[in-house]
């Protein structure tokens, strides 16, 4: 079973938000649902651990939030439309220094 990793959202050179997930996509979905993007409109996530080559990994996604109708089995208190995040992985960059 995979353990959860920590990912920091990079907006410019700042890393203010940290998300926990088993994979980068799970953290990207959380960031997209909160609208956290950089000036290019991309979601950049830095892993908190280095790989064996001693480099940092930056996972880059494009993402948005769609408004969809609530499911048929939804509870009464749920609104008629809900937000659903959608992300697509573009690439992984490797950095020597943060």
List keywords for this structure.
98 residues; mainly beta; 5-stranded antiparallel sheet; 10% helix; 51% strand; elongated
What this model shows, in words?
- This protein has 98 residues and is mainly beta.
- 10% of the residues lie in helices and 51% in strands.
- It contains one helix and five strands; from the N terminus they run ββαβββ.
- The protein has one helix at residues 24-33; strands at residues 5-11, 14-21, 42-47, 56-69, 81-95.
- Strands 2-1-3-4-5 form a five-stranded antiparallel sheet, covered by helices on one side.
- The two termini are 29 Å apart.
- 17% of the residues are buried.
Biggest β-sheet: count, sense, barrel? Answer: 5 strands, antiparallel
Mean pLDDT: 91
> Helices and strands, in N-to-C order?
EEHEEE
- The rounded distance between the terminal residues' Cα atoms is 29 Å
If you compute it from the alpha carbons, what radius of gyration comes out, rounded to the nearest whole angstrom?
15 Å
Number of beta strands: 5
- Please mark out the parts with pLDDT under 50 across 5 or more consecutive residues, or reply none: none
| Global structural class | mainly beta
Write down the overall geometry. Answer: elongated
* Residues in helix, %: 10-25%
Q: In order across it, which strands form the biggest sheet? A: 2-1-3-4-5
Assembly state: single chain
Beta fraction of the residues?
over 45%
Number of helices: 1
């Amino acid at each position: 079973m995979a353990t959860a990793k920590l990912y920091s959202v990079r907006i410019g050179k700042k890393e203010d938000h940290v998300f926990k997930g088993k994979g980068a996509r799970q953290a990207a979905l959380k960031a997209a649902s909160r609208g956290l993007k950089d000036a290019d409109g991309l979601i950049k996530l830095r892993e908190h651990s280095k790989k064996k080559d001693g480099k940092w990994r930056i996972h880059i996604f494009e993402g948005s939030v769609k408004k969809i109708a609530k499911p048929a089995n939804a509870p009464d208190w749920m609104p008629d439309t809900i937000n659903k995040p959608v992300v697509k992985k573009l690439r992984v960059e490797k950095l020597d220094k943060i």
